[in-house]
Amino acid sequence: MDFRNLYIILFVYLFCKFSFAQEEYVVNQTKYMQKANPSYFGMNQLNRVGVLYGSLKVNDANTLDNRYFFGSMAFQDNNFSIGIDINQFKMGNIGMVNSLANISYIYKLQLSNYTFFLPAVTIGMISSNVDVNNLLFEDQITSSLGSGFIATQSADPLAPLISSVSEFDLGASFIIHSEEFLVGLTLKHLRKPNISFNKEADITLPIQIGIQGGYEFDINPYERRFLPRYSYLFTYANIVKSGEAIYIGLAQDFQLGEFSIGLTQQAGSVNSFGLNNFGMTLGLAFENFDFGVHYNFPFRQPGKVYSPSIFEFSVIFDFSIYRRNNRGLYKRLQIDNYY
User: Fold this and answer.
1) How far apart are CA 162 and CA 156, in angstroms?
2) In the chain, how many domains are there?
3) Which domain holds residue 301?
């Protein structure tokens, strides 16, 4: 294998690692907490669906598109919920598509009058595809030297090997929460799936450990007129360890009746390379719909810090017939639907 082939493998490997890491890397952290902890699918046993579109600008020439869909269904008589989510990342200029599809089973246990325990198990599929027609191999150049043209096909044995890869995945999680607080633990990639296009190489995803915590404050307990009657501040933190990489996500969301505004901070470190972000979110709840727009500001320090700009738009729909009667009560942490 020559140097150019080695370069292509390295590029594809780094992109795979970068893309799969994005399962934690979203701006709207508090409304899509199931991306960090699948037990969130079962919180308050709600029947919901949601979609999110994100555009991550890697550099001036490359953009990574993120499409995310989720759905949750509660079986209240049997105390469990089922959650499904599909996450797809696409980089069009090289024809790379990475997909993650998961199904989660979440059981509800009541610890006290106002505290609930939600353990979950998740089974998933990780897949990656690349269009080799968008890659250039050495024999395509050397076979046409002197002609001025590049061959359209390669005879390199590596070409068919890097077209696709797929692996099963396994995870487990739990959340303990009340109307005021949340704590959670997540274990992902318990099978250590091998995401190498060439199975002779061992490129496995390490077991990922995540810890989550959140607290919701009533910032208008005396119903002062300068704020909506139902006004809350939800603070959230997510800390993830994956191999040598560490990720920290923080969020502060102000829910002011039907409107919400929030700040997000994300920081990561991979082999002394920093990944830091600051973002904002805006939301509007209308009857059973919850709309959101989110943006992360870019920040770059060559060789030390890289922070891409990210734009997201999301819509969540709640099927509960009682949600229209919230009258402005849009807390993140609720337990009313358990009963």
Assistant:
1) 11
2) 1
3) 3-338
